[in-house]
Write a structure and sequence with these properties.
The chain is of the alpha+beta class. The chain folds into 3 domains: about 10-40; about 45-105, SH3 type barrels (Roll); about 110-175, Roll (SH3 type barrels). The chain is about 20% helix and about 40% strand. The chain is built from 1 helix and 15 strands. The strands form 5 sheets. Strands 14-13-12-9-15 form a 5-stranded antiparallel beta sheet, with no helix packed on it. A 3-stranded antiparallel beta sheet has the order 4-1-8. The protein has a 3-stranded antiparallel beta sheet with strand order 5-6-7, with no helix packed on it. About 25% of the residues are buried. Mean pLDDT is about 85; it is low at about 35-40.
């Protein structure tokens, strides 16, 4: 018959203390690793839409996803640039925490609010789009050379106008 080794109270406290120390080291290491890895992979993007508008944050990528909240025009968010079915993953967004935003309203550079009248200076007519690089709008589908519109916001590449989304290169400040 084997004899069991008896541990003193001091020995038991040392063992419990050692286990607690190991758990603390593991938790801290995991937290540091997660924050460093997560931080390196995240980029900041912005919402570009007509001022006063909001873009919904969905729980899953798609229109059928449950709405988790929204971002206002010009708001920024963090993303790991994961794109699925035209939706981009977002983190640290208000009450939602994380979710998906439709890519057609997302820009990589902070948009500038303008609210000025511009004139179309294209050699041809320009398609007015529903969102960035989106489908052509069926009403007032074209902006012709010399026609005016109001520009609300731009990221330097695209402009949100009174007619829809248009490439900013085709617009100049109205001389009037």
């Amino acid at each position: 018959m084997r004899r069991r080794k008896s541990y003193s109270v001091f020995d038991k406290e040392k063992i419990v203390g050692f286990i607690a120390l190991i758990v603390i080291v593991i938790v801290i290491t995991a937290a540091i690793t997660a924050s460093v890895c997560h931080g390196e992979q995240l980029s900041t993007c912005w919402i570009m839409c007509k001022p006063g508008s909001r873009v919904e944050i969905r729980a899953t990528p798609g229109k059928s996803g449950i709405s988790e909240g929204w971002l206002d025009c010009g708001d920024s968010f963090e993303t790991d640039m994961t794109i699925k079915n035209g939706w981009i993953r977002c983190y640290d967004v208000g009450n939602a925490g994380e979710g998906w935003i439709y890519l057609g309203y997302v820009v990589k550079h902070k948009p500038e609010e303008i609210k000025e009248r511009y004139i179309c200076v294209a050699n041809r007519q320009v398609a007015c789009r529903r969102w960035i690089a989106g489908p052509q709008i069926s009403r007032k589908p074209w902006l012709k050379n010399g026609q005016y519109c109001y520009v609300y916001m731009t990221d330097g590449e695209w402009a949100v106008t009174s007619r829809g989304y248009i490439k900013f290169d085709y617009l100049e400040v109205s001389p009037e």
